[in-house]
Amino acid sequence: MAKKKSKKTITKEMTIGEVLEINENLGEVFLGFGMHCISCPVSQMETVEEASMVHGVDVEFLLKKLNENA
Fold this sequence. Notes:
The protein is mainly α and about 70 residues long. The protein has helices at about 15-20, 25-30, 50-55, 60-70.
């Protein structure tokens, strides 16, 4: 019997870098919100919540989309 891979929930406290480590394709979700910070060195230190504030994005809606696509 194959083990079911547990899915890690993305939270607003995670850095963008941590989110991209879970699934590098989530960069597309960030880009869809106009957040081009995925290639920025700051992404290793900036949380999803901080990036959302800087870009004027609703963090809860972003988290919903990230977790749907993780």
